[in-house]
Amino acid sequence: MLKWAIIFAVISLLAGVFGFTGVASGAAGIAKILFFIFIAITVIFLVIALLGVGAVA
């Protein structure tokens, strides 16, 4: 999922350089949402790992 956030961030940068501000703002918004979802999933997996829920006895 982080790959898609990076792709949309690059699209927004390129669109901004070429003057497509509407596309750039849309792609930046999507990249921001995907990045926050990725961070949330990562934190959830870290908490589960620290609690030892996934540990095999």
TrEMBL record:
Q: Per UniProt, what is one Pfam family of this protein? A: DUF1328
- Keyword match Transmembrane helix: yes
Q: Name one GO cellular component term.
A: plasma membrane
Protein's membrane topology: Single-pass membrane protein
* InterPro entries, per database record: DUF1328
Q: Does the keyword 4Fe-4S apply?
A: no
The regions listed as transmembrane in this protein's record are 29-56
May I ask which residue range the UniProt record assigns to the signal sequence? none
> What keywords would UniProt list here?
Cell membrane, Membrane, Transmembrane, Transmembrane helix
Location in the cell: Cell membrane
As for family, the record states: Belongs to the UPF0391 family.
This chain's protein is named UPF0391 membrane protein LPW39_12300
The record lists the organism as Comamonas koreensis
